[in-house]
Amino acid sequence: MPAKQMSLAITPTSAPSFMKRMSFVVRAWWKHPTDVATICPSSSFLTQNLASRECVRNASTLIELGPGAGGTTAAILKQMRPDSRLLAIEKMPEFREALSEIVDPRFNSEIGDAVDLLEILKNHGCGRPDVVISGIPFSALESPVAQEIVFAIHAALQPGGAFVAYQVRSDILQYARPWFGPAKCCDVIALNLPPLKVFEWRKEC
């Protein structure tokens, strides 16, 4: 495929602007301050860190948990293969409108709970994803819920699949270790509000 034609194929036809995403985030934070980790959308430093990963560029099926207003989603779509697909699962209905403004034939979204990941994948006919990217604030979850979500992610992933989580705190390490072992890498995104760490694991079997 010619470079120009491929570029058109992998660029979302529309997505909310930064300021519009901020309005969605602020409104959601106002209603649910304990569930929304920040009042500022993800910075370009974070979105590019996630989207430029080799596992994202090579994946056939990607799942995004907790996409919020869709800043990370739009960046991921720009790096994905033309024949890949992305399903974003967001628990908070306040972000439904923002996600609906992302128009791309490879993209679909659902308002649902990550605890129900396996059922949601089945309903969408996704099969086993190659990558799961999560912005869910695991430090804000009750331990049994966090453990259940990580178990579902591990069960869903293809062998060799990648689990990527961007977090304010490092609580995710204790939840992921029983299933994924130690994180393969950890990047610090200082230029984000708040600063975040990005962890990556691989499913061994």
Please supply descriptive tags for the structure shown above.
9 helices; disordered N terminus; 205 residues; alpha/beta; 7 strands; 39% helix
Please explain how this structure is put together.
- By secondary structure, this protein is of the alpha/beta class.
- The chain is 39% helix and 19% strand.
- It has helices spanning 3-10, 18-31, 44-51, 54-58, 71-79, 96-100, 117-124, 143-156, 172-180, and strands at residues 61-65, 85-90, 107-111, 131-134, 162-167, 185-189, 196-202.
- A seven-stranded mixed beta sheet has the order 3-2-1-4-5-7-6, with helices on both faces.
- Helix 8 links the parallel strand 4 and strand 5.
- Helix 3 packs parallel to helix 5 and helix 8 (143-156) runs parallel beside helix 9 (172-180).
- The protein is globular.
- Mean pLDDT is 88; it is low at 1-9.
In short:
This protein is an alpha/beta fold. Helices cover 39% and strands 19% of the residues.
Number of strands: 7
Give the number of helices: 9
Shape: globular
What is the terminal separation in angstroms?
A: 34 Å
Q: Which strand-content bin applies to the residues?
A: 15-25%
What is the CA-based Rg, rounded?
A: 16 Å
Q: Helicity, in percent?
A: 25-40%
Helix-and-strand structural type: alpha/beta
Overall mean pLDDT: 88
Poorly predicted residue ranges: 1-9
